[in-house]
Amino acid sequence: ESYYVFYNSNGSYRYIPKSLKKITILDGKRISDYAFYRMSGIADVHLPKTVTEIADNAFNSCSGIENVYYPSTRENWEKNVTVGKNNESIDGKVRFLNDSDTTTTTVSTSTTTTTTSTKPASSSTSKATTTTSKTTTSTT
């Protein structure tokens, strides 16, 4: 098996298998610079509600990321979480978990808004599409 190798500031190395697809961060306020740099095999990241900062380059070159789950609302994310530079890998991929453990994702264009609500560990999906003249976000 091949590994990502990271050099820590204390002089040690850490090895993370390239086969890793899911990262679950249980606690903490800050995701450090280059924490997951170039880990292109990661598909899903689960963040705790305690995260308030994603430092520069934390997810730089993580091209495989499909979902970043955050256990709160879009409003809390926008108010409480600062995302540093060069984290484009997570742009548009944050999914907001509500109390029933379903996610709300909104994909918008100028004429159509599609809202999908799914459970992260489940294959069941419900979809509703509404045509409108402005972009809206709805939660179900």
From TrEMBL:
Protein origin, superkingdom: Bacteria
Compositional bias ranges of the Low complexity kind: 102-140
Region (Disordered): 101-140
Pfam families: LRR_5
Name of the protein in question: Leucine rich repeat-containing protein
Lineage: Bacteria, Bacillati, Bacillota, Clostridia, Eubacteriales
